[in-house]
Amino acid sequence: MTKKNILLTGASGTVGFEALKQLIEKGTYTISVFDKKTKLSEKKLEPFANQINLIYGDISNPKDLESIKNIDAVIHLAAIIPPLADEHPELAKAVNTEGTRHLIKQLEAHSPNAFFMYSSSISIYGDRVENPYIKVGDALTPSEGDAYGETKIAAEKLLQESHLDWTIFRLAAIMGNHKMSKLMFHQPLNTALEIATPRDTARAFVNGIEKQQELSKRIFNLGGGESCRISYEHFLERSFAVFGLGAVDFPEHAFADKNFHCGFYADGDDLENIVQFRRDSLQDHFEMEAKKVSSLKKTAASLFKKPIKWFLLKKSEPYQAFKTKDAKQMHHYFNLKPKS
């Protein structure tokens, strides 16, 4: 029996690397990996060089994709994500949207029967604080200034208009290997948060290869389900406890009130019923995170938690907007009450 040829993009990323390991573990596929050459990608991918066809290139350059031929299924994960996507929207568009366009064109020409599995995002639904239960048919209204969400909507449209067979998974909050950044303050504390672990997310794509008929020309919301739901405030509290940082005791206006995304996937079981990818819960996530933190690091963080949190607060754009009374930014981040 001829092995299926699988193309995986973005294999050095958090979900991509899990997908690569799972594809190799299957032992039933010929695997091509397309990724940008960096120190990180070389470190992660070179150990597998004798088990995969490793192609380095820039997805925003069509010429770099010319060697991709005779592919049976694609797991397309390569993307510029926030905060970089928000800081450099043109780069995000070049990679996330135009890169997807180039890949589609290459496959249409040289792998017209390929099954294209696309990784989209919950960000395309925009702010759902007031209406947290999300379904695939809901309006696509990314939050103001969300360049990443806009690029994902555009890429989805390109795929749906292509001559390829396809499926789209709109990923919930994928938690793993996250660094604390300014984005932590963009999300309102009362956000309904459904996560999925990178390994569960990867499993959905890998298992989906053999479920083309059931997935064909359909869009799904991918989340961890009820066991992976929590409020953002409680998620931060548990995360801070893992890292030894104590209470989430930032001043008022450190966190935004609006203009982010996330929610609970009301129809998330639809994908689970087909590809059966869920194995992890919130508890599993926090246990995995705890294993990454040595007792020495946790003790150090506990001793220096005040200066650490002061340093983090300086990254808070909502707080800076409030302190400087920047009217435009305050309107972006906060539900301002009109003056009486």
How would you portray this structure in words?
One of its GO terms (molecular function) is oxidoreductase activity. This is NAD(P)-dependent oxidoreductase. Pfam families: Epimerase. The protein is of the alpha/beta class and 340 residues long. It has a domain of 214 residues: Rossmann fold (3-Layer(aba) Sandwich), CATH 3.40.50. It contains 14 helices and 12 strands. The chain has a 7-stranded parallel β-sheet with strand order 3-2-1-4-5-7-10, with helices on both faces. It has a 3-stranded mixed β-sheet with strand order 8-9-11. Helix 2 links the parallel strand 2 and strand 3. Helix 1 packs across helix 6 and helix 4 runs parallel beside helix 5. The radius of gyration is 21 Å and the shape is globular. The N and C termini lie far apart (75 Å).
Quick structural summary:
It holds the Pfam family Epimerase. The chain is of the alpha/beta class and 340 residues long.
